[in-house]
Amino acid sequence: MTALAPERERLARLLRLVEREDVYLRAVRHRLLGDDCRVDAGRVSGLLGDDTGIDRLESFGAKFARMQDTVIDKLIPALLLAAGEPVMAAIDNLDRMERLGLVAAAEPWLEMRRLRNRLVHEYIDQPGDPAAALERACRFTDRMHADYALIRSYATTHLGIACGA
After folding, report:
1. Distance (Å, rounded) from C-alpha 27 to C-alpha 5?
2. Cα 127 from Cα 149, distance rounded (Å)
3. What is the pLDDT of residue 1?
4. What percent of the chain has pLDDT over 70?
5. What DSSP state is assigned to residue 84?
6. Which segments of 34-130 does DSSP mark as H helices, in order?
7. pTM for the full predicted model
8. Are 119 and 125 in contact (CB under 8 A)?
């Protein structure tokens, strides 16, 4: 076994971390919403009607925020560095990842960042308030999962990074 350069070791650790975050996020999404991302005020009221629903909603928001933060703020810069690409501001890194074909599009990730702020920081006054945000976040979990798969595949295939535990 050969030692990896520090930036490649960090990338491997981050890939394993995001793998776990992805598994946990998709699991809590399933516990919260099942296979149906459609959310309206009535569904939110039902979720807020008991402690389990509230806990799942808060857990989903936290896991969504955590994975999105880890990918944008840590994984993408580490991947670019390991690939010999310049590391810039988050928006520029996302644009570079899109050009490299390692995220389907940069804009959804920017929208996820804005959505993360709503899910984590806004107080729920009316059940209709978070419905649209929750639905978007639910759908974005699929985008995060797919883009993570692209990143992981690139790291494995082109950089020789083993992503296993």
Report:
1. 33
2. 34
3. 40
4. 90
5. T
6. 41-48, 51-70, 76-82, 90-99, 106-121
7. 0.90
8. no
Whole-angstrom distance, CA of residue 134 vs CA of residue 19: 22
Q: Which whole number is the average pLDDT over 105-111?
A: 95
For the chain, what is the radius of gyration of the CA atoms? 17
Q: How far is CA 146 from CA 19, 72, 132, 141, in A?
A: 12, 15, 22, 9
Give the chain's length.
165
CA distance 23 to 152: 14
102 phi and psi angles, rounded to 5 deg: -100, -10
Element (H, E) at 136: helix 131-159
In this structure, how many other beta carbons lie within 10 angstroms of the beta carbon of residue 146? 12
